[in-house]
Structure formats: C-alpha cells, structure tokens
Design brief:
It holds the Pfam family PGI. Keywords: Cytoplasm, Gluconeogenesis, Glycolysis, Isomerase. This protein starts with 5 loop residues before the first helix and ends with a helix. It is built from 22 helices and 13 strands. By secondary structure, it is an alpha/beta fold. 48% of the residues lie in helices and 11% in strands. It binds 6-O-phosphono-beta-D-fructofuranose. 6-O-phosphono-beta-D-fructofuranose (F6P) binds next to loops.
Length: 551
C-alpha cells in the first residue's frame, strides 16, 4: 500500500470534520445501535469510552490514517530504543526505563554517538532508594535528635512537585508510614502554612530539583535549611537533608551529604520524573511496596502502548480524539474531571504534562506549525467542578471536551456517598450529550404550574444544546497500580500528540524568558534599587510597588 503523505492525511481529516452535521453526536447513537460497542475499548483493566464524541467510522479511519502518515508508531519505537527524540535538547526520552523491571536493557544514545546503559543506572538508584526508604521506616536512619522521622517535606516546583504531590495525595492513607508535605511556591506564605505542622526533630527534608538551580526551590530550600539549623545546629541539619537531582556539584555545595543524593539523568524530563528519584517522597510517605506498585502500573501501560495495534491503542486513541476536537472542530480547551477526591491534584499534574509539552508554535524542524496545537487544560474533581465551571460546559457558547474519570469501587465504607458521586459523574456526561430541547423544557415548566408568559420568557435560559463531547475512563478501583496506569496513559497520549503535530513535546523553552526578566527585576526591588528600562506598564507597576513598600 502506498503510504499517505501527512498533508493528504490532514486534508482528509479536516474535510470530514467540516461535513454538515459533523458535530452531532446524538444522531450517531440513533443511527448505530452498536456505537457504544464500537467506540469503547478495554485494556489494562480499564474502559475507555469515546462514543460520546462526534467521531464516526469515517473520522476514526481518517484519524488512524493520520497516525500512520505521521509515523507515530515508528516514533514510539525510536523513543523506546533510546534515540534522541527530544531534538532541540538533543536528548533521549526514557521515562519508560524508570519503571521497567531490573535489567530491562534500556539504552540511551548520547549526542557523542556513545550508548549508556540506562537500565543499569536506574537499577542502582532504585536499590539505593529502597535501602534508604526501608531504613527510615525501620527507624535505622534517625533524626539528629535520635527520633524516628515522621514527616517528609518535598521542596520542588513544576515536575519536581506536581507529579509526586498528585501521586501522594492519591495513594496516602491512614496506615501509611510517613506524612508527605509539599512546598513549591516562592511565596513564603506556602511555608508559613506548613511550618506550624512540623517538628524539625522529626522532619526529613527532600530538595527535589533536576537542575538544582531553580530559583523558587533554592529560595525555599535555604529557608527550610535555616529552620532546621536553628534547632539542630549545622551538623544536625545536614542529617535531615536529602537531594533529588542530576546536579551533584550543586547538591554538595548546598551541604547535602553525598550518600543522601539520589540522582537521575537528563533523559528524564521534569514532568515525566515522578518515577525517578524525584518520586522519593511518594516512597517515604506511602511505602516502598506501594511505590513499586505505582511503577508496575505505569509499566503495564508502557507494555500496552508498545504492543497494541493502533486501532486498539489507548494512548493513541486518546491523542486522536484530541486531534479531532482541536484541529477538526477548533475546540482548544479541555477539561479533566476525576470523580475521585484522591485525584484532586491530577488535573494540575496533567496541566503541566500537556501544556508544557504541547504549548508549541513551531515544528521540530523550526517551521511555523500549520495546525493548532496544545489545548488549554483545566479541571477539578467532581462533584466540586459541577458547582463551579460546569455551567459553561453545558450552556456556554463553545463546547469544551471533557475527560471524566470514574472509579467503580472506593476504598472508604460510605457506599451512599459513592453512589451519589458516580450518579453525578454519569449524569454530567449524559447531560452534555443529550441536552434538553424546547419541548421538554416547556412541558416540564407547564407541569410545574408556570404561566404561559413565564414559560416563554424562561425557555431560552433553560434549554441545553446537547451534543457536547466527552470521553470517559472507567476504572474498577484506584490503587497505586491503577494510578500508574492512568498517569502513563496520559504521558503516552502527550507523546503521540507531539508526533501528530510534529512538535518537540520534551522541551520547554517558553519558560525561560520570564525567568530571565525576573532576574533583572529582582535588584530593582531592593531598597537601594531603581526602576530600570521597561515597558511603561511594568515600570509604572514597579514604581507603585516601591512606593507602597515605602522604598
Ligand atoms: O519551569 C519549567 C521547569 O523547568 C519544569 O519543566 C520543571 O519541571 C521545573 O521547572 C522544575 O525544574 P527543576 O526540577 O530543575 O527544579
């Protein structure tokens, strides 16, 4: 068969998305009794339902044709083979090696042509992390005051905070070995909230930073180091410090003992790093065995991603659904709605994972992209979301595709609450699809005794257009293994989108300019500083800040 060029595949897809009625979903169900059967998939103990989107057979064929034309599966294999698929940073992308079984044989191809044994390094770090975690939990490693460590605080930001924070919140339970806390924001009000809950004599401090130069993390690390030192002295303070970083020189300069540094490599991207040493707070807080279960879940999804055919490959199907919405229908917002409070940080994690990876406007070759790329990702757990932004999803001017995540069995005993939660999640997706037409609204208001005049006045406000797309991920339970699976599912979705859109999903140059400008503004905020050369707005704001600070 002659391979289709990406442009031809795009044209075919866009033409299908412009067909009259291409956004209708209800009629797809009425025309095809088997639609749910055809458009849901089960793999890795989860069910992915795409039937509540406007993707029909022709659109799915066109989407799969696009995946073939853009070489998604070949790119996947290149990533797994340790090729330097992060081309603007000239690095391999090997977060899959972090959750592979010992001796898995992942290789990282270096820029100088050499090959590193990625798995050997991962295995050695994992062994060291396990020894440390178990020794802390057994009370063999104790604090400077001779007490057992009861709390662990992770100081990091972005990928060095969001992933571990999200996973700890999802996995931690009453019987877990330590209390994990997360300090990210440069705003010291964050520390002020955490500090009163901590006893320095029982607190282990993890400084999580791939580069060990991130300004916010280093500022917070200095504050917390000072807090430890005040009570424990310099030597005592050092016994409480741990660094999770690739920058061994900087960790030593900061005063972290070398046997308390857990490293990783540049082929682990920040937003993909929770499986690496960056995940130590998860292991300490939730237990080593659960950390391993989390990794095993991600591995199960890796195996699925690496082996399932395109038409049944869950990460690819999710990515293609996003292409349909963003590029086909021009819908560039996307809501993440986990109906499980343990997943309350999941939308924030996906926000970084997706927006830092896919918020790009040039191709891997440096040309302007021809299509829209990463959508705006936002979300909240259900049912909270229903009482904040769901109004807009139901009746706003533009549809916003939403991912519902529903868990069949909770790990609490309150069956009534759980039924309420599930009924609401199912109902929201049903309401988005079904809508509510004029006849139905009129009949309901008339039956409720409204006057004819009131009925007509209120009618437009009470109509729901329906045909609003959503996808549902249904899981039997949320345990560490399942969490690993769903996080890896979205990681691979992001990878597929990077290939489909031909952007480097592993760099983040867009965060640099603001960091640089803040460095030059910093001295202007000192008492002896002066307002420098800025646009009039920034200069005016700095001037007023200085005035209100009495400078
Ligand atoms: O600001 C962007 C970023 O580089 C993220 O990609 C990263 O996760 C975060 O900062 C933290 O970086 P580091 O782990 O080096 O402190």
């Amino acid at each position: 068969m002659t391979p289709v060029a990406p442009d031809a595949a795009w044209n075919r897809l866009l033409a299908l998305a412009q067909r009259p009625g291409a956004t209708a979903i209800r009629s797809l169900f009425s025309r095809d009794a088997a639609r749910f059967e055809k458009f849901h998939w089960q793999a890795c103990d989860m069910l992915l339902d795409l039937s509540k989107t406007a993707i029909d057979d022709a659109a799915m064929q066109a989407l799969l044709g696009l995946a073939e034309a853009t070489g998604v599966m070949a790119a996947r294999d290149a990533m797994a083979a340790g090729e330097r698929v992060n081309n603007t940073e000239d690095r391999a992308v090997l977060h899959m090696a972090l959750r592979a079984p010992p001796g898995a044989g992942f290789k990282a191809r270096r820029a100088d042509g050499g090959v590193d044994d990625a798995s050997a390094d991962v295995d050695a770090t994992m062994a060291a992390m396990e020894r440390f975690t178990r020794a802390v939990h057994a009370g063999e490693i104790r604090s400077a005051t001779g007490e057992t460590f009861t709390d662990v605080i992770n100081i990091g930001i972005g990928g060095s905070d969001l992933g571990p924070f999200m996973a700890s919140r999802a996995m931690w339970h009453e019987g877990s070995p330590m209390r994990p806390l997360y300090l990210a924001n440069a705003d010291a009000h964050n520390w002020e909230l955490i500090r009163p809950r901590l006893n320095p004599g029982r607190t282990l401090v993890l400084i999580a930073s791939k580069t060990f130069t991130t300004a916010e993390t280093m500022a917070n690390a200095r504050v917390v180091r000072g807090w430890l030192e005040q009570t424990l002295g310099t030597e005592g303070m050092r016994q409480h410090l741990v660094a999770l970083s690739t920058n061994h020189k900087a960790t030593a300069e900061f005063g972290v003992p070398s046997d308390r540094v857990f490293g990783f490599h540049d082929w682990v991207g920040g937003r993909f790093s929770l499986w690496s040493a960056i995940g130590l707070s998860i292991a300490l807080g939730c237990g080593w065995d659960d950390f391993i279960r989390l990794l095993a879940g991600a591995r199960a999804m890796d195996e699925h991603f690496l082996s399932a055919p395109p038409a049944a490959n869950l990460p690819l199907l999710l990515a293609l659904t996003t292409v349909w919405h963003v590029n086909g229908l021009g819908l560039d917002n996307h809501a993440i709605l986990p109906y499980d409070h343990r997943l309350s940080r999941f939308p924030a994690h996906l926000q970084q994972l997706e927006m830092e990876s896919l918020g790009k406007r040039v191709t891997k070759g440096g040309l302007p992209v021809k299509h829209l790329t990463g959508p705006v990702i936002f979300g909240e757990p259900g049912t909270n979301a229903q009482h904040s932004f769901m109004q807009l999803l139901h009746q706003g001017t533009t549809p916003v595709p939403a991912d519902f995540v529903l868990i069949a069995n909770p790990s609490h005993p309150y069956a009534g609450n759980h039924r309420l939660l599930l009924a609401n999640g199912l109902a929201q997706a049903e309401a988005l699809l079904r809508g509510r037409g004029e006849d139905e609204v009129r009949a309901e208001m008339t039956a409720a005794g409204k006057s004819a005049e009131d009925v007509e006045r209120l009618l437009p406000h009470r109509v729901f257009p329906g045909d609003r797309p959503s996808t549902t991920l249904l899981l039997p339970r949320l345990d560490p293994q399942m969490l690993g699976q769903i996080v890896a599912l979205y990681e691979h979705k992001v990878f597929c989108l990077g290939v489909l859109w031909d952007v480097d999903a592993f760099d983040q140059w867009g965060v640099e300019l603001g960091k640089q400008l803040s460095t030059s503004i910093l001295p202007e905020l000192l008492p002896e500083g002066r307002v420098g050369a800025h646009d009039p707005s920034t200069a005016g704001l700095i001037g007023q800040l200085r005035a209100w600070q009495g400078l």
